[in-house]
């Protein structure tokens, strides 16, 4: 076979594929890659409509302009309101520390998938890279050295909706790796022989994106009654409505805004008017997952690897985080910094995330979408008592919302994370690196804001009080590490007062709050992976263990 001419071929130009492409384009040097999409135009439908705090943290690694473009296109969800049998039950305000104090994003951003894709495409365009639309992967065959892909593109005036004779141009591409971000019918998954087991939920649903005159404030509202109604705020006065037991809500060819108005009148207290729908559709839901995320030189991510119910808005966020996890590993192997075995950790880390989400969303979905009259009665009777009782416990409430926000994802059992032998803090290798606000300088800074880009970052903590080290001592520790490290690592010193006064260091943890988050009273270090998770953690006195870890 001919040698690979391309490092990576990304098949699929949705949020997962675009995130992977952006992560690769941000590396130095940039791997050679192409991203193809069979659709000739980007969909204008909202589809997935939420970016959770953890995803926002990861996108922020690409600089403030990306987040600043996203935010005006959506609306932050300020609360979750529960109703049962048309009566208000409980409200959880999401500005009350529900997500904890270790993230700058305390709320999820409700935003159309079309807008998210547009911002990601613009960011990718700054690298001179564009999605190749109208390009379809016909077949893939992998061998020991690479993957041979046959791509087909409609000839000019000969297909793709152009009214021609349907003729296509064929192209053969050789690449080292292929990543399938191509959804539930993934050709990458099928060609690699990956299993995709699961089934179809028995219920069907109807959906509408519609303007809504409503006295209630714009927040996610869940209504329980003879079925389920979810109302989600989008932007510009538009709301997403999802209704269960759809077989009772209008015929296949007779789905109008009046059908949704009738549902709202049944479930929602007070007067509400729907008008000017932008999208109405009926749909069925599947729950499936691959047996492995990698087979040889083929990988799958997003809906190509896992599909589940929309409970909690987990699907798109999980796919985008699949991409972030895989991208830095592909880059490290392609640059010769790591051997191919590193890529096996993608399956080990992300498959457990996908499995837990599938199990959890299944259970919640069955409770919300049930049509069993006995279960419906029990649910609607119990909810007014259970939710206020559960949410009155701050720790339980925080745990539930942090799970949904994906801030609790961790990889402690991964073979590529660890901690010093003497370390006994609560944080471990594989945990998400907590965020916190720093003082010093004219602008507000956050710890994870220092960890921008897609490389490794070494955080050196001075320690607190009498045991704390000066800026100069931390500088020496960082220089010593770089002399023996094989990788380009950016070093950041986090000092408490008065240690920060030595050289006017701008990264000051004046109150020791961030030190406390990480479990450091004595001087310590944290090696943060390119995807914002802890690679290795320990006290500064065990720096030799970190050096050995990096070399290994």
UniProtKB/TrEMBL annotation:
It comes from Hyaloscypha hepaticicola. Keywords: FAD, Flavoprotein, Oxidoreductase. The keyword Zinc does not apply. Pfam families: FAD_binding_3. The keyword Oxidoreductase applies. InterPro entries: FAD-bd (IPR002938), FAD/NAD-bd_sf (IPR036188), RIFMO-like (IPR050641). Residues 6-358 form the FAD-binding domain. SUPFAM superfamilies: FAD/NAD(P)-binding domain. Its cofactor is FAD. GO terms for molecular function: FAD binding; oxidoreductase activity, acting on paired donors, with incorporation or reduction of molecular oxygen, NAD(P)H as one donor, and incorporation of one atom of oxygen. This is FAD-binding domain-containing protein.
């Amino acid at each position: 076979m001919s040698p690979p001419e391309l490092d990576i071929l990304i098949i699929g130009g949705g949020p997962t594929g675009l995130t992977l492409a952006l992560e690769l384009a941000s590396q130095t040097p940039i791997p050679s890659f192409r991203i193809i999409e069979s659709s000739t135009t980007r969909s204008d439908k909202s589809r997935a409509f939420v970016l959770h705090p953890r995803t926002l943290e990861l996108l922020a690694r690409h600089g403030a302009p990306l987040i600043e473009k996203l935010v005006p296109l959506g609306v932050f969800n300020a609360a979750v309101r529960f109703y049962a049998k048309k009566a208000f039950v409980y409200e959880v305000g999401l500005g009350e520390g529900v997500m904890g104090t270790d993230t700058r994003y305390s709320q999820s951003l409700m935003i159309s998938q079309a807008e998210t894709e547009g911002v990601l495409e613009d960011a990718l365009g700054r690298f001179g890279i564009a999605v190749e639309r109208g390009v379809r992967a016909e077949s893939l065959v992998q061998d020991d050295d690479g993957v041979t892909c046959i791509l087909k593109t409609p000839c000019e005036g000969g297909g793709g909706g152009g009214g021609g004779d349907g003729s296509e141009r064929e192209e053969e591409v050789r690449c080292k790796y292929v990543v399938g971000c191509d959804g539930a019918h993934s050709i990458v998954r099928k060609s690699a022989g990956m299993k995709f087991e699961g089934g179809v939920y028995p219920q069907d649903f109807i959906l509408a994106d519609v303007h809504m005159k409503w006295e209630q404030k714009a927040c996610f509202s869940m209504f329980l009654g003879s079925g389920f109604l979810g109302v989600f705020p989008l932007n510009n006065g538009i709301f997403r409505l999802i209704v269960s037991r759809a077989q009772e809500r209008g015929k296949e060819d007779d789905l109008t805004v009046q059908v949704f108005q009738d549902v709202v009148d049944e479930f929602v207290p007070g007067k509400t008017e729907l008008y000017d729908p932008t999208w109405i559709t009926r749909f069925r839901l599947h729950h499936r997952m691959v047996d492995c995320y990698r087979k040889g030189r083929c990988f799958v991510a997003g809906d190509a690897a896992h599909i589940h119910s929309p409970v909690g808005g987990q699907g798109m966020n999980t796919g985008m985080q699949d991409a972030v996890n895989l991208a830095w590993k592909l880059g490290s192997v392609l640059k010769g910094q790591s051997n191919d075995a590193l890529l096996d950790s993608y399956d080990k880390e992300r498959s457990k995330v996908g499995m837990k989400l599938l199990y959890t969303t299944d259970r919640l979905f069955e409770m919300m979408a049930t049509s069993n009259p006995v279960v419906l009665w029990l649910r609607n009777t119990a909810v007014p008592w259970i939710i206020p009782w559960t949410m009155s416990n701050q720790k339980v409430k925080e745990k539930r919302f942090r799970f949904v926000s994906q801030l609790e994802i961790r990889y402690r059992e991964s073979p590529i994370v660890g901690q010093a032998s003497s370390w006994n803090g609560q944080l471990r290798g594989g945990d998400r690196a907590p965020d916190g606000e720093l003082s010093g300088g004219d602008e507000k800074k956050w710890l994870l804001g220092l960890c921008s880009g897609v490389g490794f970052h070494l955080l050196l903590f001075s320690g607190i009080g009498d045991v704390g080290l000066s800026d100069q001592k931390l500088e020496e520790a960082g220089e010593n590490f770089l002399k023996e490290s094989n990788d380009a690592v950016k070093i950041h010193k986090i000092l408490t007062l008065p240690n920060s006064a030595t050289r006017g260091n701008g990264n000051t943890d004046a109150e020791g709050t961030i030190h406390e988050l990480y479990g450091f009273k004595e001087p310590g270090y944290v090696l943060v992976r390119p995807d914002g998770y802890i690679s290795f953690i320990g006290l500064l006195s065990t720096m030799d263990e970190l050096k050995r870890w990096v070399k290994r």
